[in-house]
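Researcher: Here's a chain I'd like modeled. Treat it as a single chain, no partners, no ligands.
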Amino acid sequence: MEEYHVNADALREQAILRAATAVIQVGKNDDGTIWTEGIYDPEAALKEKRETGGDTQIYWKQIDFNLRWNRISGTNTLDSVGQVIDYFASEYAQYKTRIEQQYTGDEQAEALAKLEELFSERVAESADEFSRLVGDFLEANGVEGEHDAIRNSFLDIYEQRKTTYLGFIEDHPDYAGVKGTEDEWLLTAGNFMGEQLRYAMISQQPEMSEASEYGYSMDDLYVAGTLVKELARFQSPTWSYNRSEEELGVELGVGAMKYALLSNCFDLSDDVKSKLDQAFNNLMNNAIDNANKYIDQQRSDPFVRNKEAYTMKIDKTAVMDIIKQMVENLNAKDVNAAFRSNLTTYMSIYKQKMQVGQTSSLARYHSYYSSWMNQNFASEWNPFVDRISAGTAVDMSRYLLKEQMQWLDITV
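Model: Modeled as a single isolated chain. Structure tokens:
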């Protein structure tokens, strides 16, 4: 928002030019060739809109495309749940207002019915996808029966957000600042009006703190979705369990740091916090247990000739100690220095185990698996911190790591 405020005039001008060139007619000629009709010069397009008053048609296919584009789709979008709900609610509010102002009688009733049908379907799809991914994650980690509560909370918060936007429009009918100007044609430019509505609303009411009678507040949904996005890979079939105590502890430890930061920065309800804690703790334990199951499988596999490489199981206590120490980094005065110190220690221990004693013959201490020591953890951690900082409007630069986190010569 700070960046938007600073560049508000330039961004608004760009948005107006985008709106002026938004609609291009496309069709097919009798011979099969494609024809297009539109103005590609933004300034010329803007002049034409101001002279003609713009286009009053509602392009339902374009609205549908935008809703699909901004929906919850896969694990990587789970931390966008707030933006998705806000987008759906603001778009519904601006189009409902436009329809009520632009149409009357049967034409208005028909357009409103179409609006309700379209938005209900698309919002339900995102609610279903979000509740499926988060609910399945929780269930896989010992917290069952949350799907309906998550889905209903998503829908409930959407309805609340719709009401908030509709009330905001009623109190600020010229929220886009175009009435009575040469750009009044923008009142029927959907993309522009939606963008301006969200900007105007968030400028005055930056907090999106809706709660729900179904159990999950907006913060609850956001933290749950982000937790799944960041940690679901530890349950993926492609995630290798052939990892040393040190690598496993550091990898899970970074995940634990993420959850700790989320828990500290957002106002979670006690019930949801308890469930997320349970799921998180089970995930950590399951990851270590699965690493030991992998060792058992290798021992019993008749095609594995080198049984000596799997004689020792993972030391669960050692892994848990590393995880706890990684989380403690967040409390350090210099988070980057603490992280670097811990990582250097664990890498040194790993390197020693590769070279000396019984551990040197284990598969998980083979030089092939030492590549994790050159992993740049900052490239994963820093974007996460930046997203949390943007979502809370709090300066979290103290948690950032230096870009290069590679210090050891791992040659064996």
